[in-house]
Amino acid sequence: MAPRGTNVIDEFVAVEELHALSPKDMSSLLQEEESLVLKLSSAKGVILTVDVEKLASCLPLHLMACVASSSNEPRLRYWLRSVRLLHTLSSLAHGYPKLAQVLLQDVKIRMQILDLVTYMLVVLANMEQEGRGGGFIAVLHAASVACSLYLLMAFISHDWLDIAHVLLDHPKVDVFMDAAFDVVKRDIVLLQVKLRSLSIKLSAKKTTFESAERVAQVTALQCEASLQVLQHLCVAPNFRDQVLGHKELCKNGGILKLVLAVLKLQLPPVFSNSKSLKATFSRSKAKALVMMLTFCESEQCSFLDEVAAEPNAMQLAEQVAHEVLLLVKGALLEDPRLIEDEEEEKKNPMGFMHITSLRLADIFSDDSNFRNLVMDQIAPDLASVLAVHPTKFQERWCGGPVARELAVGEQDASLIFDPFEAAGDAMAAAAKVGAGVCVQEEPCNPPDFQIIPLAATAHQTRAALLVKLFANFFCFNAEVCPADEKDRFMHTFLRYLREGPLNPSHPLFFLSYERTAVRICENLHTLYDYVLTLTSDTVVDDDLVLVSDFAEALHHQMCPSSVSVADAPLMSFVRDGHEQKLLQWKNEREQSERWNRLEQSRQSGNDEMAGAEVAVQASNESKKTEMDELVKVEEVPHTSGEATGHEIETTPFATMVVKSEGVDQHSIQHDGPSQGDVIALQHVSMKLENQKSEIETEIMVVHEEGESGSANFTEHEDAGRGEQESEGVNFGGMVTPASRRTSRDREPYSSEHGDESQPKKRKRNIMSDQQVNVMEAALQLEPGMQRSPKLIQQWTNHLNSIGPEVAYHQLKNWLNNRKARIARQEREKQRQEEGDVLVTRSEKSRRARSVASDDMDSPAEASSRLKDYDIDQGDAIPLKLSLQVSRTPSNAGSDGEPHNSSSSLVKWKVGDHVSLRGKDAEEMAVGIVIRVEGSWQGHILEDESLCLVQVSELKVARTTKLPFPSSKAGSSFEEAETLLGKTVATWDTEHMCMVATTSTPSLV
Predict the structure, then answer these.
(1) One GO term of the cellular component aspect (predicted)?
(2) Rounded to an integer, what distance in angstroms lies between the CA atom of residue 429 and that of residue 418?
């Protein structure tokens, strides 16, 4: 440790003598010596010499050895002094390049620091602490944890995102995570025990209030600092996802245990007047809530779904939700704090505790696992919110002075943690004399904060979140909610209104039932009018529509009707005044551009509903007709060629007879059919019978959907339109209807969904129909978009410019869900195809002869249709062959050139190579069909006989006008390429011809 000829000391003496020196004091001593060797006098008067460079290089390993050797209280005090000295040396190194090279630039030292921090957290998390929380171990333990965690910032980086990446590369990162969450949770528990102990001592007058408050405040600040480290680390997406992938923390409830411990922190009544302790507790709860919110919004996986899968974790989550809703109750009903001095307020910022609890309530209420729990607990508070005096309601929820006071009262701040000062305060607070009375040797340094400025819209946030709660509760999603939960919120809310504000004994009851109901209804409409003026970034359109529907439904359920007050003139006057006010508000809303847009969207949705009902009826009739036209398998007599007169030689065997409109009735008869042929035909007979029963079931289901006014029929119709059309199967020259999707393949749906007072099914994302259509078109051009973060961000920005705000992770989740849905549909389709009957060689030869004899096809086409199947080798041909391209002999080409085929005989599909013709039949371009269904730039492709084609070769000038121009896709080929990045055009199928090709050009 020191040069020869001087007093050589060990690390223990160095730590005891040097830990109290601040970086400034130690720097002054080094400047006097002009080297990295310190000379100082010990408490016993002995001159000591310390080589700072050598001490810095061996101190991490020395401390790790000490941690491994002992875990009693005196050693805990020594650990804290050693960590404090490490922080001092780290600060000192910035002014001494030689010391910086040893401490901050040596990879070996940095790895030792990472191992030291991880090992200290593991040991501190497993210390025997039972029964000792009332002593001073609580403050020392909390300080050791906090100062150890901040070693990462001292030696690794000052950016927590960089620290998170370094930790992820460490082989013991999972051990670090587990220990960090566990040890901070233990500190929170020790803090609560310490507060009870101090409260008892104050009651027994064994200590002074100032000393007790100092110990409590120092301990609470150390816990807040540790929570802040975890919060900063979890901001990094990769670190957060790693935590969610940790079974102990996610599925076994490690995260929830920490959050629950923080939310259950209670300040004893004896400290109720301590502003500093109140603020510290509020900030700590805010940090825990923010961390919980971060996990719930993760893009990698659904935290709440993972928790719901484990019974123990789900029980913890329900307890957390209960604590969150207690804070929500305060956010909804508590009066704002009296702020006398804003500068004094900045010394004790409260954090976003209430606002973050409302955000979490929004997430819980939108999750099917927690929706009912949150609804039952929060509905009484929502009833009380709407029942207050209209003036008070507007002041609190409509941007009034109370709303601004509440925003100022929740000033968010980040704790500026100084490990050297914090360790000194902890050791001073832990000093004991006599009978355990704490002696304050010097005043505790007040904490410093980095105040986060309030946003200009901070006073609007509460109103926006209140609207989200009403929207989430009123929304009914038939895909995730049982049918019996429809209108559950309305019934629950009305019940709590009758038990609460509408009850004459309730403080918020106003003169009569009718007047109280009118007040509640008008307050809700006032809230709607206010949030209607906010930006779509604050409140999305879907939530506004749902709240509007809820207000209308509540009005009809609760407010007096003309019949109920016919015999009461006074109540009739109240009702008439209320109706006039609602009408006046509606007239004023017509001046709002956003309201008009919402009404147009709502009207468009109603028109689609009406069209869907017509389509359902037409589909029902079509299905019945198709069922009657199914190919029937009958046993008919085989007539021998030698038979004459009435003498007929009959041989019973299965023969297919077509009874279909538009096709000549004929039968295929063969002498001596093979056994395989008979088995195959019997199989077909069984399958057709099953198909008939399935269609009957499907007709019944579709009929129910049509009567209920299903809002999602259009989507189902688009998905299965190709299957509903008459796309036949060519089997031995006979056309049979193709198999259809059965009712078992449909998404679960409730027939009760069509109630006019209930909003249409709300999807879990917040994208409008226009945004969904834009994304569907974009995915035709960029099918691998979900693998490109850059593309996702670009399209997120574009979607936000044309509709409601969509976050990056929401768009990514939508892309992943869409991909999974398509994969599921493909699997179902594959299973159906695997169940189709395979035809043997003899059947294929008969099919070939029948195809050649069909008057709709030429021999060349028959050969082309079957060229992909090796008939001579006896390969089986799938039963479901479609009339993809049926041409007349006069139009059929022979050399692979485009054919002018009738569009009514062509079923275009994605990937077809086509020639685009103008009105004068001139070829304008060659391209590939990329979309045949859905909507594009205001056109319904299948209804208007249009296809979306990506041009691969242009035959005319780039400035040539498109037949279907638009502002988004351009009016010419050149503009389309400029706006979309690729030349994409909408084309009439009547002017499209199939192109024979041997290769598929890339769409990239």
Answers:
(1) nucleus
(2) 16
